[in-house]
Amino acid sequence: MAKRYILALDQGTTSTRAMLVDAAGCVAGMAQREFAQIYPQPGWVEHDPREILASVLVTVTELLTRSQVELRELAGIGITNQRETTVVWDRRSGQPVHNAIVWQSRQSMAICERLRADGGEAIVRAKTGLLVDAYFSASKIRWILDHVAGAQARAERGELLFGTIESWLVWNLSGGRLHVTDASNAARTLLYDIHRREWDDELLRLFGVPRAMLPAVRGCSEHYGDTDPARFLGAAVPIGGLAGDQQAALFGQACFEPGMAKNTYGTGCFMLMHTGTQAVPSRRGLLTTIAWDIGGRVEYALEGSIFVAGAVVQWLRDGLRMLECAADSQVLAESVACTDGVYLVPAFVGLGAPYWRSEVRGAMFGLTRGTRREHLVRAALEAMAYQSRDVLAAMEADAGIPLKELRCDGGAIGNDFIAQFQSDLLDVPLLRPRVQETTALGAAYLAALALGFWESRGQLARLWQVERRFEPRMPAPERERLYRGWQAAVQAACAFTPS
Ligand SMILES: Nc1ncnc2c1ncn2[C@@H]1O[C@H](COP(=O)(O)OP(=O)(O)O)[C@@H](O)[C@H]1O
Ligand SMILES: O=P(O)(O)OC[C@H](O)CO
Fold first, then answer.
1. Which bound ligand lies closest to the C-alpha atom of 249?
2. 383: Cα separation from own chain's centroid
3. What is the CA(415)–ligand 1 centre distance, in A?
4. 23-57 residue pLDDT tens
5. 310 labelled binding-site residue
């Protein structure tokens, strides 16, 4: 039977998606499933790794059944994942020793504070392009080793394994034969030297992480091995692509040239600018990261990571019960001409780029007796755009390249209000592609290139098409006035310290 599709698995923060991509680069089917978010304490976020694995198998089964595609028609699998989220499991039983600690979680903040106080920041920055923050995997591993009885000794004996989500999935889908990660995910751990491209002993010592736990680091587009029929729906399918979801989206958006950038509006917001084969250091609170390693050639990106974007809409829906569904937020926001001076700083888990203030919490400003639900909802949506402007200002200055246009994707950018307001606030055109599942598409592309399903990146760049282009239309004085208000709101939120 002909191999007609690549299967992309996009394991995100709030849901798992499985997508079929055909030889013309068209999406031939998709299935999605949400899974539980576990909040053991304020500021902590965990997932059950077994539930994540189950969500993958269920979405694939549903997708194949609905699309009437047989496993034999799959040329291969590309996997992309929420990054940094940390799983530690027992090599023999395959069982996690703790819930996965999610990238958003602040539970390892104290570990980072100690490390910063001991002067660890400079080494980390130089080798990893990141900074010491609970966002990245290393302090989460440390937390698990500290809180699970006997874990440190077991890890040193090689009995426990660490992996980010792609690593956990590949381990399971391959029946425990492959313990691997890829360079784009390794680059988010704080343990990987992005210049020398290897796990770094000094960093491992700094966090007390035994080398025996770590997966082998591979490229982003290669044949890693096959799924184990006993663990993957009875079939041996080649796994050909691995990448962190934000890097996969950069690839799926065909941002292959220095200066090209995309912003993904999902749970958080992640703006990445391709910087070529140069790792450009940031002096303004951005991250330097590996975009991908293909055939041993590494390309880099500058990244601004915003922790809460679409998540604020979930909070309005589930926490405050102000919305029936996320899409209602557009209708409500557009029903008022402005927020009437209301600003919402959604620092629910602190502020990420470019501020990196873990201890700050969310705040609302400018409330009056006339403030209505519509104003709050609009302020919540506008906050995504304001945070992205903070990041873009830093990015243009660090890269020395003014942005010509911004490619966008992610669940929240289907909201036309956000897209238009973002273009207005950045004063650049925002391009929404026809296939908005660019993360899954990127993973499919990476696998397709490795497995000979497609030949070249040029072919992929030609497949990219605009669905809608949002042009800036807000007068400059209005834009700057609104932005000054946001800056004042952020400053005030940062100044607030509860006793
Ligand atoms: N129409 C909408 N308007 C605003 N936000 C939305 C809309 N649709 C989805 N979202 C938000 O987008 C996020 C989901 O996007 P997605 O790209 O699936 O995220 P992730 O990959 O982080 O799980 C959710 O936080 C949701 O609240
Ligand atoms: O799963 P997403 O889309 O929320 O992305 C999460 C990021 O990879 C975290 O760094």
1. 2
2. 18
3. 9
4. 888 899 999 999 999 999 988 999 999 999 999 99
5. yes
